[in-house]
Amino acid sequence: PADIRITTIHSTTLRVDQSLLTGESVSVIKHTDPVPDPRAVNQDKKNILFSGTNIATGKCRGIVVGTGLNTEIGKIRSEMAASEEEKTPLQQKLDEFGEQLSKVISIICVAVWAINIGHFNDPVHGGSWLRGAIYYFKIAVALGLLIKVFFFI
To answer: Which fold has domain 2-82?
Structure first.
């Protein structure tokens, strides 16, 4: 893929569909005349064939003036890659809700665990305080996950 400066046209007209780059709905007539303004926008560069565009009618020859990231499409790609993605208001609200929900779930887990401290030495757990703590920790986490799943369904 390359941008090409037209040097000669071998047909009566040269029309190019450059809607991919400029959004123009009709094909554009190209010519070999130089563009006087070096800061001209792509629509005004009538002597350039842009990478990714298609010749609708005609034949021409030209000189490659840019390839890869040095083409107009490549410059657009580089600008898009360099820009930071901004969160939408909905994404911001969902992030806030997720943080608040995580805090509530953490409090519930700690509360369930704290309420059951007296049951840690229960013979069902083999009389081991550590096994009881782990057992009730699992229950607290499962409860927290159920609440989280409930809110996101």
So the answer is: 2.70.150
Read out DSSP for 47-90? TEEPTT-EEEE--EEEEEEEEGGGSHHHHHHHHHHHSPPPPPHH
Residue 79: exposure state from Cβ atoms within 10 A (0-12, 13-18, ≥19): exposed
Cα(116)–Cα(143) distance, integer angstroms: 14
CA 128, distance to chain mean position in Å, is: 51
Per-run averaged pLDDT (10 residues), the chain, 153 residues: 95 95 91 91 93 95 96 91 85 87 81 78 76 79 73 59
Tell me the DSSP string of 17-32: E-HHHH--SS-EEE-S
Break the chain into its structural domains and give their ranges: 2-82, 89-152
